[in-house]
Amino acid sequence: MNVLEVKNLRVDIENKIILEGIDIALKSGESYIMFGPNGSGKSTLINTIIGIPQYKVISGKITFIGEDVTEKSIEERAKLGMSVAFQYPPEITGVKLSDILKVCLRKSQREDFSEEEKKLIEEFKLTEFLDRDINVGFSGGERKRSEILQMIFLRTKLILLDEPDSGVDVESLKLISTEIERYLENSGSSALIVTHKGDILEYIKAKYACILLEGVMHCFSNPKEIYETIKRSGYKECIACQERISGGWQT
Amino acid sequence: MIKDDRLTGIPHQILEGASAAGIDLGDEKRSATFLHVDQSTIFSKVGEFFKGKLELMDTKDALKKYRWLGEQVWKLVDRDKDEFTRRVAEDYSGGYFMRILPSEEVVFPLQSCLMITREKLEQRVHNIILAEEDSKAHIITSCVQHFNVAKAAHLGITEIYVKKGATFNFTMVHSWSEETMVRPRTGVLVEDKGTFVSNYICVRPVKDVQMYPVAYCNGEDSRVSFNSILYGNKNSSLDIGSKAVLNGRGSKAEMISRAIGRENAKVIVRGMIEGNNPDCKGHLECRGLIIDENSLVQSIPELIARKRGVEITHEAAVGKISEKEIEYLMTRNVVRDQAISMIIRGFMDVSIMGLPKALSDEVNRIVDLVAESS
Q1: pTM
Q2: Which terminus of chain A is less hemmed in, N or C, by CB atoms within 10 Å?
Q3: Under a CB-based contact definition with an 8 Å cutoff, are residues A8 and A199 in contact?
Q4: Does A159 touch chain B (CB under 8 A)?
Q5: Nearest 5 degrees, angle CA A183-CA A109-CA A124?
Q6: Which residues from A are below 8 Å from B332, CB to CB?
Q7: Among the residues of A4-83, which ranges form H helices?
Q8: How far, in Å, CA of A97 to CA of A137, rounded?
Q9: Of all helices (H) and strands (E), which one includes residue B324?
Q10: How many whole angstroms separate alpha carbon A113 and alpha carbon A118?
């Protein structure tokens, strides 16, 4: 069964078309990678799928576990089981990391973390950040660790990861990638990961990958092969090849 | 009413009102407790362990006990300042006199509760605090109106002397009601190496509060901080200012405010730092959030330099809640209203006040308590 289906999606921001003809079919329990240079529309796609209102769907459809969510609000999508780790999460003064983690765990603010949860927070090296305002003064790695831990605590059917490997030190990258993979394996959840680097492929077993270039999707093939071609010849050369799997990600 | 040294002798409704305003009735983590209800002081007690470290009694009793205290009265607040000071000078029902003895460090806070339980009462109190040389203490004072009272007025004069090397931390929590007029008038004198910290919290609806405490940093290396968390809601009108007069060499002032306006509230935050010594510094910071179209948040900073070398700065920002922050929380499966509440509560986080952890936790608890009951 497809967890996420995106059909012929066209998106604009402030009357400018950013995405055109996007098709995605993401199967339950699988993870797909979307490569693309900066400014190619990757974050726009993630923000559109999660339902941020500034990203307007002009045409096309987004279906999540069989339900048309194209017109649904962020909160409805979150309730259905969709979550996102942002590339640039906002700083919120006065709202502590522990407050958000408890929200993700559906705990009241007065409840304490369980021993297991405390252990995971410690593994993410975030224990000392629990009383800090979310993202305020966090380094790139700390933000990513916080975002991924929130995803794990939310335990949703689909996680959308916007550049989890950008601005992250090697150690943090290894930690978050390993934990994402562990979570996906144990939970059977699916992931759509957008990135302009391939470092994360070392740790995450993604089935397919594609390229998003100037708002249009290309190539549906083995992630490592695509990444090697991009590294060797660049995005434009890569999308010129004929060895793509036709028909989007449905195959 | 009679003065009692056991809380058990006090009517249940009064204890309930005091507790809702954050008064710790367990009494264990408080060094001293003072309760003034309507026009009488009904309870005044220093904890056993703290006897000999501090004194606490009604101002009228203190003026009878210490003749020299008369010299300290109406020195920091002008009795002819306005109609409200004149009314208190004319007649008042008491108030608290607190004295922290020299070199004593009082680890648990003193607590005071000034309560109104009678409809249309004008409560007039005069409080005096003496933080003697090298002493260290903090007080949490709750001004509260009982649930069954709709309309009242509170006029409170407070004069605070922070002597050489003393540190005094003054946290005031206001829990009035929608038909109450409040006019506190406060003056503070800070001597050499003295530190005064004022934390003012107003989170329940109130008809009208207008206050403008003034701290005179006359001492060398004296310090003053004014912090305020103002949640203007349900037609409240809050005109809250603070003024620091930096006369001493090396004196410093800091003012930090967080103001929220919603449901037809008007919140004006004033701050004035006056640098009269070539070696003094000040900083003023105000952030305001406006939640709807019918409210007003206004920041009025004033910086005055009278000597070369004065260094005073300010930063202010007022505006709406960031949509990006709301959306972020919504992606964490939080509904929109809950996301806004989390951001507002976070905005009122008392950690801006830089209180010691135990006191900060305590003040946060009180803010939660008072906010929940509003």
Answers
A1: 0.85
A2: N
A3: no
A4: no
A5: 35
A6: 78, 83, 100, 103-104, 150, 154
A7: 42-50, 74-80
A8: 12
A9: helix B323-330
A10: 6
Length of chain A: 251
User: pLDDT tens across B115-126, in order?
Assistant: 999 999 999 999
**Cα gap A148→A146, rounded to integer Å:** 6
Instruction: Give the confidence band of B333 by pLDDT, cuts at 50, 70, 90.
Output: very high
Half-sphere exposure of residue B127: CA atoms within 13 angstroms, side-chain side: 28
Q: What is the dihedral of CA B317, B320, B323, B326, to 10 degrees?
A: 100
Pick A49 or B356 by higher pLDDT: A49
What distance in Å separates the CA atoms of residue A182 and residue A204, rounded to the nearest whole number? 9
Section B274-292 average pLDDT: 95
Distance CA B253, CA A152 (A): 45
Report how many helices (DSSP H) and strands (DSSP E) chain B contains, helices first: 6, 21
Partnered with residue B195 across adjacent β-strands are: B167, B223
Interface ipTM: 0.94
On the question of pLDDT at B137 being above 50, the answer is: yes
For helices A140-154 and A170-187, the axis angle rounded to 10 degrees is 10
Q: Domain map of chain B by residue range?
A: 7-372
Q: Lowest-confidence range among A196-200, B273-277, B289-293?
A: A196-200
In degrees, to the nearest 5, what angle opens at C-alpha B351 toward C-alphas B343 and B326? 10
Cβ atoms within 10 A of the Cβ of A246, count? 7
Q: Give, in order, the Cα–Cα distances in Å from A77 to each of A68, A164, B250, B332.
A: 10, 21, 57, 10
Closest CB from A52, A73, A94 relative to B348: A94
Which of A52, A100, A133 is closest, CB to CB, to B332? A100
- Side-chain half-sphere CA neighbours of B30 within 13 A: 21
In chain A, which ranges are continuous DSSP H helix? 42-50, 74-80, 97-104, 115-123, 140-154, 170-187, 223-233, 235-240
Token readout for A139 is: 């380094």
Within 13 Å, how many C-alpha atoms sit on residue B41's CB side? 23
Residue A6 contacts B where some CB pair is shorter than 8 Å = no
Domain residue ranges in chain A:
2-88+156-240
CATH superfamily of A2-88+156-240: P-loop containing nucleotide triphosphate hydrolases (3.40.50.300)
Residue A78 in contact with partner chain B when CB distance is under 8 A? yes
Q: Are B98 and B66 in contact (CB under 8 A)?
A: no
What are the DSSP calls for B166-228, one per residue? -EEEEEEEEE--TEEEEEEEEEEEE-TT-EEEEEEEE-S--SEEEE--EEEE-STT-EEEEEE
- Give me the DSSP letters along A203-236: T---SEEEEEETTEEEEEE-HHHHHHHHHHH-HH
Report residue A142 as tokens: 């700390």
Q: Which tokens is A42 given?
A: 């990757």
Side chain identity, residue B89: A
Q: Which of B330, B331, B346 is opposite residue A92, by nearest beta carbon?
A: B346
**Which residues on chain B are in Cβ contact (under 8 Å) with A84?**
331
Q: Looking at this protein, which amino acid is placed at residue B172?
A: M
Tokens of A137: 């003064």
Flag whether residue A49 sits within 8 Å of chain B, measured between CB atoms.
no
SS3 B18: helix
What pLDDT, on a 0 to 100 scale, did the predictor assign at position B371? 65
